[in-house]
Amino acid sequence: MLLILCVLGIAIQGGLSEESIEYFPKIVGGNPASLGQYPYQASLRFRGRHFCGGSVIDKRWILTASHCLSGYVSISE
């Protein structure tokens, strides 16, 4: 678990530019949000493409679901 959080912490340090974000409405009945409206939300990306979401829980930490990293990171006990 700690390894996953460390990897995510490193991955988000690069930051995102507004030009690199693609907007696709995915939530039925949801409302569009402007950039920066929900600063505690994170887009997890691989090779520039969004694959899962996460929540910013600290300055250097993102919390996400384990299925988001299935196949990307091996977890050993």
UniProtKB/TrEMBL annotation:
Q: Which Pfam families match?
A: Trypsin (PF00089)
Xref: Gene3D superfamilies? Trypsin-like serine proteases (2.40.10.10)
Q: Does the keyword Protease apply?
A: yes
One GO molecular function term? Answer: serine-type endopeptidase activity
Which ranges does the record mark as transmembrane?
A: none
Q: Which SUPFAM superfamilies match?
A: Trypsin-like serine proteases (SSF50494)
Q: Name one GO biological process term.
A: proteolysis
Highest taxon in the source lineage? Eukaryota
Task: List, for all copies, the residue spans of the domain called Peptidase S1.
Answer: 27-77
Q: For this UniProt entry, which residues form the secretion signal?
A: 1-17
Alphabetic keyword roster:
Disulfide bond, Hydrolase, Protease, Serine protease, Signal
Task: Please give the name of this protein.
Answer: Peptidase S1 domain-containing protein
